[in-house]
Design brief:
This protein has a single domain (about 5-214), classed as Lambda Exonuclease, Chain A (Alpha-Beta Complex), CATH 3.90.320. About 45% of the residues lie in helices and about 25% in strands. The protein has nine helices and six strands; from the N terminus they run E-H-H-H-H-H-E-E-E-H-H-E-E-H-H. Strand 5 (about 150-160) and strand 6 form a beta hairpin. The longest helix is centred in the last third of the chain and has 20 residues, at about 175-195. The N and C termini lie close together (about 5 Å).
Length: about 210
Amino acid sequence: MALLLTPTLFQSIDWMEKCPPSWKTRARQSLSDTLNRVWNPNKAIERGIAYERALCDEPRAKVTSTVPTHLLDKFNNAYELIHAEGGVFQKPTKKFLDYDGKEWLLYGKMDVAFPDKIIDIKTTGNYKGRSSYLNSWQHKVYCLTSRIADFQFIVYEFNEDGVLHDIYVIDYHVDDFVALEKEVMEKVDSVIKFLRADKELLRAFLNKYNKYNK
């Protein structure tokens, strides 16, 4: 069976390689947890997951009841984007790769997939700007594997009391799929080399991260 590669794994490795020295131990543990499928979400993450589910599954009125009045227009506009006609929630996207004589699988699950656009819903307690999302790998992998050129992050920012503070829509467009595939394949190459250079992490990748993919 193909070995699984995901944007989450890419991000974890990026963070371990780029984080300040004082964060290296914590970043390695986070990557190890990802590879070993250990997941201990904090309250903020649990709240974010619940909110994302509510946005997709609950009636508009129920979700809107918690939205501050000054954000209602922004909220309704974002809600219309998510629930526009033709969207499919939690749709898998994948692409099989041949690398170094082995089969690999780029995989993701799109929050909302339209024939001509992908929407990903994010929640955060600290919005750090467009670049923090556009410098990630999720939109690039999802657009490449689905062959859909347009991607939108819809980011819901909450304050420390759990009250919605603002909503941001971040657009990404693929101008050249050939260039995008080259960029993603270069990342795949670096990720595989990184894992092969660390026996402990490689063992977790093969035995735990790919446990259900054999």
